[in-house]
Amino acid sequence: MTEKQKLVVIGNGMAPGRMLEHLFDAAPDAYQVTIFNAEPRVNYDRIMLSPVLSGEKSFEDIIIHGDGWYVEHGVMLYKGHKVVEIDREAKTVASEHGEVAAYDKLVIATGSAPFIIPVPGHTLPGVLTYRDLDDVDAMLLAAQSRGKAVVIGGGLLGLEAAAGLKERGMDVTVIHLMPTLMERQLDPAAGYLLEQELESRGIRVITKASTKQIHGETHVESIELEDGTIIPATLVVMAVGIRPNVALAKEAGLSVNRGIVVSDHMQTSDPDIYSVGECVEVNGNVYGLVAPLYQMAEVAAAHLAGDMSRRFVETSTATKLKVTGINLYSVGDFAEAEDREEIVLRDAAAGVYKRLVLKDNRIIGAVLYGETADGAWFFDHLKKQTDISDMRESLIFGQAYQGGSQMDPLAAVAALPDDAEICGCNGVCKSKITSTIMS
């Protein structure tokens, strides 16, 4: 019987967890696996931290691999062991508690670290980030006071934190540097609808706002904006971005840029060391959404199992906001340009907004708010680069109106409220229904 190789994994997040699932399926007897996890717990679904914060789920509900899974696969899991050294010459790693493990192959999955705005007062008790279960536990403890929370950052994580804290009874204000919320995923119109919805739930939103200082003696008391506005706060949550956690790899002498530089096989500059997850830079890009991270996991697992054909290929990734009652879907490129056309549907009464961006009769971007059932269908056409010429008149109405199975486009228009608008003229036409729909 061939002796198993030693595989050491640094990090126990979603990407390395998925990688091991694929590896155990493809080559169940190839490796003896050891995992070092800086967190004192098993692998869990970080995407579902927001429902834990809001009270919709418990930690037990979001566990991916319980203790039994590690036992079943013969994995040695060191919980609460942060790795502090990689010795590439000896091919060992060492944890802060003195545990040393030898490897034949090593996978670095150190994830990312939240960016902290270095304004005066950022080290005060009551200033938190939002990245892991410890952060959620700290926010839940703070929320027991039912005080005032300020969330800095109007991106995905910031808005999910704001909604969760509001559900826990806190008075919540979101401050965001840009003119509209989630500007990386939404166009201004959808961002404005989102802002209106949040304010209808009692969450105050201040855009074009820059933090000058956090005030307090022994604890957070307020935030001061650059324009002099003072916002009382007993809790400040910074959700302004992440940075790949590359320090360990850099100290080991691996090639590092913004992230740990890897090939499309997920190999670092050392052929015996791989890297997956938010700490990685591949083809000049770093990623924070789960779909590309899972693709990295599949590629690394295949390579470790001996399949050299799998490669990482960049693809578009859809974005959804995990806040109950808010339906939002965004994918692709929706920036304005002369060679692009748009089809837009606005139904103010229903709170529905749909925008498709076309180039050469192909979908390159989609933003849906309020009604998102067709998001996956639009995304499929985007990925396949489908020529939509034959369905252009009915495209904005979604899958159900294709192939003559439902009412024709004119009947669909007639069924809309009087204040609904449809435009397909790249912003030139001001009429409610353009020739794109009526021809």
Largest sheet: 6 strands, antiparallel
CATH topology of the largest domain: FAD/NAD(P)-binding domain
* Broad CATH class of the largest domain: Alpha Beta
Mean pLDDT reading: 90
The portion of residues assigned to helices is 10-25%
Q: Decide which structural class fits the backbone.
A: alpha/beta
Number of strands: 28
Number of domains: 3
Kindly report how far apart the N and C termini lie.
Answer: 72 Å
CATH architecture descriptor text of the largest domain:
3-Layer(bba) Sandwich
Q: In terms of per-residue confidence, which ranges show pLDDT below 50 for 5 or more consecutive residues?
A: 409-420, 425-439
Shape: globular
Could you give the order of strands across the largest sheet? Answer: 23-24-27-26-25-28
User: What Rg is obtained from the alpha carbons, in whole angstroms?
Assistant: 24 Å
- Write the CATH homologous superfamily of the largest domain: FAD/NAD(P)-binding domain
Number of helices: 11
Q: Which percent band covers the strand fraction?
A: 25-35%
